[in-house]
Write a structure and sequence with these properties.
The structure holds two protein chains of two kinds. Chain A is an all-alpha fold. Chain A has a domain of 208 residues. In chain A, 74% of the residues lie in helices and 2% in strands. Chain A is built from 25 helices and two strands. In chain A, strand 1 and strand 2 form a beta hairpin. Chain B has a domain of 212 residues. Chain B is built from 19 helices and no strands. Classes of the chains: A mainly alpha, B mainly alpha. Chains A and B meet through strand 1, helix 6, helix 7 and helix 8 of A and helix 15, helix 16 and helix 17 of B.
Chain lengths: 495, 482
Amino acid sequence: MSIIFVLIPILAALAILYGCKARLTALIASGLTLFLGFGSIFFWKADVWSVTFQVLSKPSIHLAMGFYDGMSLIMVLLSVLVLFTAVFAGKAPEGRQKLYYSSILLIGAGGLGAFLSTDLFFFYAFHELALIPTFLMIGMLGTGDRKEAAWKITIYLALGSIILLAGLIWLVSASGSDTWLFKDLLASNIDPNTQTGIAALLIIGFGVLISLFPFHSWAAPAYAAAPAPVAMLHAGVLKKFGLFGLIRLYPMVSSGMQDWLGWLIVLLLCNILWIGFVTINQKRLDMMLGNSSVMHMGYIFLAFAALVQAGGTAANPIAIPAAVVLMFAHGISIALLFLLTDVVRQKTGTVELAELGGLAKSAPRLAFLFGLAGMASIGLPGLANFSGEVLVFLSGFENYKGEGFGCVQVATILALWGVVISAVYMLRAYRQTFQGPAIPVTESAKDLSASSKTPAIILAAALLVVGLYPNSLLSLLKKPSCCSECDQCTEQADQ
Amino acid sequence: MPAYWLEAFVLITGLVLLLLEAFIPSRHKTLIAIGAIGAIVFALVLLFFAKAPDVANWEMARFYAWDASAKFFKGFTLLAGILTIVLGLDYRKTLSKFTANPESEDGTGEYYCLILFATAGMMWMASAKDLVSLFVSLELSTITFYILVAYMRRNVGSLEAGVKFLILGALSTGFLVYGISWLYGASGSTELSAIGASITEANSTYLLFGLALILVSLAFKIGAVPLHLWIPDVYQGSPTPTTSFLSIASKASGFAISLRVLEPFLNNPVTHDKTVTILSILAGATILVGNLAAIPQTNFKRLLAYSSIANAGFILLALASWNKGSDLTSAQIVGFYLAIYLIMTFAAFFILSTIHRNTGSEEISAFEGLGTRNPFLALMTTVIMAAMAGVPLTAGFYGKFFSFEAGVQASLWVPISIGFIGVAAGFYYYFQIIRAMYWRKSFDESPIKVCPLSRYVLITLTSLLIILGFFPQPILWLLQAA
């Protein structure tokens, strides 16, 4: 059943290309997925929602979809939220509506498909579905250095994906599993020496997709150049694919990841600190946001590193919840920021920080929402990112016994400074854009229109709900995964 | 009905049509094409009813194999023949322009017959299991191709292509004969299974030398480095249907005989490692050269030529990881890859011929503005280019997926790492077309028309690419049932 999450946007995209009203169809389709996404929180039953259909017998590949566990559900919620708001906020240029809305829907379908797949093959395959629409949208309708950015993101992601594919193939063949299904793969054991090699390929492959330092240079220019919906979907949803994959596959390569822990920590600190300083130095609002999204990936990696050091969920039970909550929170906040940046661009015609100022006078609602999202991004308590970041830092010290610091603890302490860096660039950008005396470009700017206000309020509400009541997400994570435990649960329930 | 009647049927139909052609008025030469398509479709149906020849009572039995691979490649060649003639039908205006009076179709009739001869030759190649039959069938197809390449005799490009192809083809034939004589001298037999059985430590050096010489000739046929140099020029100069036939059917039959020739060497532990080394080097070099040289191309036909070299490299990677994979045998992967390659490359050639008919150009710049000039065609082109680049959820992904899978399982990390570069480069040059279609505007905004025949073929091929992308099992059924 859960395959309809993917079918709805794909069919809607085809209908749009065939001639249906573009914006209306896209809104209905994405609204439907949003409705289904929230519906599935309440009617979540793994065996009812999952579907498995063998598409190839040798090697055994299944088109298998379903909520594998609470993490899938949360990522699907993130995807449908961002997809709906991206469609809602989209403003297609004249004559390009068809391509515009169908591309957004296809990108969303790619993300949803990846998070819902319970087969490793389609997990990988759906992610790449987004590649072509992204390339088209950035190159065709982007701003600034759109062509260069489009090539960069396409080639980086293609290279990362193919390296990842080699890692996944190695993983499957080393596991001795007959199928590519998660449940069979996760039940198998891999020789520790082989794990080291597989883990290296996975870190590089996923790392490129997550924009792990030093494979990050595609991200910021691409997000800056991309049309707002694409930036929202890519930075908010698709970039989480890599972390989602790492966490999902971690149990199979736990000892292999341990071998690369040192490297991982160095790289993630580069993400937080190095890219943090790079972000401070940005002169444009969109480039600043693009870099900040690269930087925040470092925190999620930190939770992953804590998990790797502990050696599993048993020894560090809060690492995965931390990563998942922060993925969700970051996805929502960065989507909101990109949405509002696009509004700033439309109202004033520029995103150069030096050319802006005093926008809060003429557009107070815009300023308020931007401030909220910016505060969330820094990690202000009461907003979603705070819950995520606190959990991440706690997970770093989960196994701390009061003796000397381990490398993860040192990394956590250093990473804490990232919050300060975030505050510096975000507050400076806010001041430059919204505070101070109004200048000609901002004086005449109008406040948020309805088509931007509605999605922005939805996203802001999600930030507040998760921030004030993080259990709304954490309780979902406690749901049993759809393989063996689930059967036991239903058996117990029957008794 | 014994299987060898199939080749005889195709060949005899070709001869009959050639005789009839002389009496058909110049306006009705398409009748020949229809007759040829009918004959091939009939042969394709017969393929399912053909039985293995009676080995005991047939003196030619040692020359003729009838197994899964033979059946698959015969069907493959027949299908490619049909599509080539269909493409030729839409191309006949250009063909007659450079052969006879552009108003008439005088010069086009023989073209379809020649395709039948080449088809028959390549069907025999699929069954060749003796070096003699291999040589004879290979020459039948190659000599026909010399004519097909230089068919537009009033076009300098076509003639130039013909001369290049002839000289290098003759050279490679020389290598082939020399290699065959070494194998015969060292093993005392021309039968490939007997050669495989005779491999010992003592004669392995001579046999490998002979194999290396034969591989030179096979590299020419499949377009592998270092004998790939003819491909861009010949592909560009030839009539487009010939190019498609050359790049699909001829390459596939080259792989069919490569499988037969390499099998005894790869199965024998004495020669296995050295053969794998040779193949890995060939694969790595071919992937690298094909993909990197494709990057600066501005002509779509040349781009397809380099892409065909690149694809040959990926297929060689699957060959090099001989049967180390747990899932499919290398022969099956080669078949799988080629089946998908047939669909997407023919689709690309149909696009090329449509664009050429409308704009008179084969440059990538001719695609500019296609997104507005014909959105449907642009959409199909996008799918086809995505498939060629190997984007998942299109059939094109599975070819690369399987060769990487085989490579990883055989731990051939060097050619695989080169493959990474190749795939990334592939995204760049295939996406050039998508870029031209959507990012750029054309001065000429007139709509681009697609011939009805091309339209149906294109829709079929494109939907196949998407359907097989989600559900590739049918190809495996064909490979296993064959």
